């Protein structure tokens, strides 16, 4: 289950920049086992999680896993603005 506080989740973005492979592995292990309802219920950390995944898609070594996690979050979307998980995933074509 993914839990966290908004204030703590801001650090995730910085750590994703410093150690992208480690963050990718850790997030994948959490997101892969979370149910859609659990992903949908994440409201306080979701913005920072998406922003961290945006950092991870810049690296060729972490692109595929980060894109898959964005897709998983998009399938359990809980935001309505354009840079939500769905909008971010759709915009990945700029990386190809």
Describe the structure.
By secondary structure, the chain is mainly α. The chain has one domain (6-95). Helices cover 66% and strands 0% of the residues. It has helices spanning 6-18, 20-33, 36-41, 46-56, 63-75, 85-90.
Order of helices and strands: HHHHHH
The proportion of residues forming helix, as a percent range, comes to 55-70%
Give the structural class.
mainly alpha
| Overall outline | globular
Find the count of extended strands (DSSP E, 2+ residues): 0
The major sheet is characterized as:
none
Question: Rg, please?
Answer: 12 Å
Count the DSSP helices: 6
Integer average pLDDT: 85
Integer tally of domains: 1
Whole-Å distance between the termini?
32 Å
Describe this protein with a few key phrases.
96 residues; 6 helices
